[in-house]
Write a structure and sequence with these properties.
Elements: H1 19-24, E1 29-32, H2 34-37, E2 52-55, H3 63-75, E3 80-85, H4 92-106, E4 110-114, H5 128-133, H6 136-139, E5 144-149, H7 164-177, E6 183-190, H8 194-206, E7 213-218, H9 223-232, H10 239-246, H11 259-271, E8 277-283, H12 288-297
Parallel strand pairs: 1-2, 1-8, 2-3, 3-4, 4-5, 5-6, 6-7, 7-8
Helix pairs in contact: 3-4, 9-10
Amino acid sequence: MALLNFRKREKTSGAPVNGQVEAFLKDYSIEVMPRTAEKVEDFRDLLPAGTRVYIAHIEGTPITEMVATAKRVAAEGYPVMPHFPARIIKDRATLADWIARYQGEAGVEQALLLAGGVEKPHGDFHSSMQLLESGEFDKAGFKRLHVAGHPEGNKDIDPKGGMKNVEDALRWKHKFSETTDAEMALATQFAFDAKPIIKWADDLSAAGITLPIHIGIAGPAKLQTLIKFAIACGVGPSLKVLQKRAMDVTKLLLPYEPTEVLTQLAAHKVANPDFNITKVHFFPLGGIKTNATWAIENGGSSATPANQQG
């Protein structure tokens, strides 16, 4: 559990922290890659103690680099959740080897399982469901397993549009969650508009899919950077939020901040305590330090970096 410092923070602009957003950001997580983690001298200067750190596994990254990053982040006191992208894992023996390396060298006991953004599988696996069915994570005693969620759909899964295949997969994963000892949750792709996020989450709940949702949020970044990533990642309806902003010359050159979407989601959570979005997961597209600083200024985990906590 994070060592929390509950002092109220003032934003550098002088505006007070929004209490609803502060509560909504409690125990947020953040994503890094080996190459971006190398730019951080010490995560304890940026993140509250206990912050979950996902390590994204991009095609072509050697497993040795992934494990080394996990070991380094864990040594600085953070629970590590590496990605296991099914389509770049050759076979069950490779999967077992990766798990053993992560556990043996970095003490990893949680993972994000996803298909991975690779068109042609490298071997036997093509979906996170196959990774779950392998039984390797239960065999290794993993305590937490997250799977991907897509509030605006996923064209890799539903190439003709719509949500049918995505929703069928989520039903399967929800049923699987009832058979494993590991805690499970959905970690989603980022989106920029609260309304479709809320509708998607409510629709899942109505369909009996009750896995907790850790909502993906893009951290502060240049507008052009976000649009590029949004298009590459297939972000759908909420891309219009960025496009509308790009047409406003008064905002075009200003960095995007996720204040509006988080404010709306936090207010909805207060009005609907059973709302199934339980955590925020940051994609630091504008840089880890930039994202971490924004979180601190907005009260994330009543955020004081670990090196500054008493």
